[in-house]
Design a protein that fits this description.
alpha+beta, four-stranded antiparallel beta sheet, 11 strands, Chitinase A, domain 3, 4 domains, Triger factor/SurA peptide-binding fold, globular, about 20% strand
Length: about 425
Amino acid sequence: MITRLTSIALAAIIYLGLPLTTQAQEQHLDGIVAIVDDGIVLESQINQRLQAVKQRFAGSSGQLPSDEVLREQLLDQLILEELQLQMASRGGIRITEAELTDAIQRVAASNGMTGDDFINSLAAQGEDINQLVLDIRNQMLLQQLQQIQVNQRIFISEAEVTNFLNSEEGRFWTAPDYNLRHILIPLTANSSPQTVQAAQQSVNEIQQALAQGEDFSTLAVQYSGAPNALEGGNLGWRKAAEFPPEIADQLNASGAGDITRAVRSAGGIHIFKVNEVRRAEDMTMVQQTKARHILLSPNEIRSEEETRQLAEEIYDRLAEGENFEELAETYSEDISNALRGGDLGCATPGQFVPEFEQTMNATAIGELGGPVRSQFGWHIIRVDDRRQIDMTDDLMRQQARNLLASQRFDEELDLWLRELKSDAFIEIVDDT
């Protein structure tokens, strides 16, 4: 996760036009705390993490564990990170300067910050720019590696998907979503008859105004006692099951544009406007793309730049009329489809990584796309066909499969990290 502090400092690099380096420009002599396969963990790394933890909890009322306990936890964290970074390097996973810059710019833009803000914040906090760049690059590498390694360990059977969809949780998940606005006239069980009468009078006025075509949002600001009244009673997308049964029944009987009757609950009298309804059973038309690709990945023999140049050479040969299928069989390193001429079959949205999918979607039928870099390497793409298909049931099952996989991800990640550590050579250096 990129913190606000990190995004400020890194975005300053872009603004200043400084180079994005992969390592600190100076490496001071330092004590080795652990030997981890082909790498090491330094004393300074633990000290930096320890200082950061203490700063983060400086204003907290809770008491942190002792430095000894924290150092042990941080050492374990750094060992696991070192093992993963070594695996990422062996696997040819790279973060390009463009990918890093794009990530930083997105975070900076989401914070609404300008170049002056970046510079001022960086100067005020005295951050080490090179170290921040390195930290962010490493975190991006870890995320990509974990997605690749952990997801391939997770298998969700068709029976599990069916059982989930038939379960109470599955029925809730596939139930309609309602985009709602809400007016609440507060009441309690102990409200006096006069208060109840006044509330009912307000409800009558609201219903009369709605019947005359007045705007629901304006009436919410005027009458509602709910926390979201000043936002026009906006509740966003909600499921009927999130409300008491008497309200859920009203929503389930409503369509887009409907206004429910006034409903009394423990908190008062409610009126809802249904702006939109999304139902799982509604027909879902999806564009399917039939494509082929050639994948080239950097490795210990071929550098990132050499791989990019080779991808461009192959692209030029294809543009001049050479056979895509033959070049895919010769050069592509995606063994799952290389012998089929790089055939990826018919793909639905979300099936491929974003960089690949964006280029594929922007490529016309019969044309070439790329070369484009993803976490797997450099791709050259040819789009063979496109079609619209009804994916309602398939899409629902795929979404259920994704949800079940995400629920297992953290558990499987923990198991994978334990295995990674148990298979590694780790020596803790005793400096006593």
